[in-house]
Design a protein that fits this description.
The chain is mainly alpha-helical. The chain has helices at residues 13-20, 27-44, 61-83, 95-100, 109-128, 148-170, and strands at residues 138-141, 144-147. 57% of the residues lie in helices and 5% in strands. A hairpin with a 2-residue loop joins strand 1 and strand 2.
C-alpha cells in the first residue's frame, strides 16, 4: 500500500503533515528503509549533542529520539487493536509526560539505537502479517478515526518529521 492509496479515513490536519512529509511511498518499503537508515543517523549525532535543547522548554536530542520510539509503540498498539477488529475507542497519550518520565539522561546512545531497532522490527513484523484487507480496518483513537494503514504511514512520517527537526534545529 502507498500513501496515495489512503482513502478513508482522511488524517486529521495535525497528522496529515506526517503523511505529506513522506511523499508517495510504499508502506513496508519505507518501514524497512527507515530501519536501515535511522540508526545510522542516530550514530552520527555527536555525543555532546544528545543533551542539547535548542531553546528553553524544548526537548533534548535524546528526548526527541525516545519520543519517536514511544510514539511508534503507541501507534503500533493501536494498529494491532484495530487490525483485530477491536472497536473500543482508545484514549490519547500525554507525550510530555512520557518524555518527563523517560529517564533518558541515564541512557546511552547505543541503548536508544537498540531499542529503536527492536520496536521497528516489531512494527515491520506486525505489518508484514497483515493481509491487504486488514489495512483498511478502522478504529477511534484520541477521538479521531484511524485505519491500520494510516497508523503505519504516521509511524514513518512522524519519524521523518522529527528527524528533519533534529537536522534543522539541533544539528546545524
Amino acid at each position: 500500500m502507498r500513501t496515495t492509496d489512503i482513502v478513508l479515513p482522511k488524517p486529521a490536519p495535525f497528522y496529515k503533515a506526517y503523511i505529506d512529509v513522506l511523499g508517495d511511498v510504499e508502506l513496508l518499503g519505507m518501514l524497512e528503509r527507515q530501519l536501515d537508515n535511522f540508526p545510522k543517523f542516530i550514530e552520527s549525532i555527536p555525543d555532546d549533542k544528545m543533551s542539547y535543547a535548542y531553546g528553553p522548554d524544548k526537548w533534548t536530542t535524546a528526548q526527541v529520539l525516545l519520543h519517536i520510539i514511544d510514539s511508534e509503540r503507541v501507534f503500533q498498539y493501536r494498529a494491532l487493536r484495530f487490525s483485530r477488529g477491536d472497536q473500543t475507542s482508545l484514549p490519547g497519550f500525554d507525550q510530555d509526560l512520557y518524555v518527563l518520565n523517560s529517564e533518558v539522561e541515564k541512557r546511552s546512545k547505543e541503548s536508544i539505537i537498540k531499542e529503536y531497532r527492536t520496536v521497528r522490527e516489531a512494527t515491520i513484523s506486525l505489518y508484514r502479517s497483515f493481509d491487504p484487507s486488514i489495512l483498511g480496518r478502522e478504529g477511534l483513537a484520541s477521538s479521531l478515526p484511524w485505519s491500520v494503514a494510516l497508523l503505519g504511514f504516521v509511524i514513518c512520517g512522524h519519524q521523518k518529521h522529527h528527524r528533519n527537526i533534529l537536522r534543522e534545529r539541533y544539528l546545524p
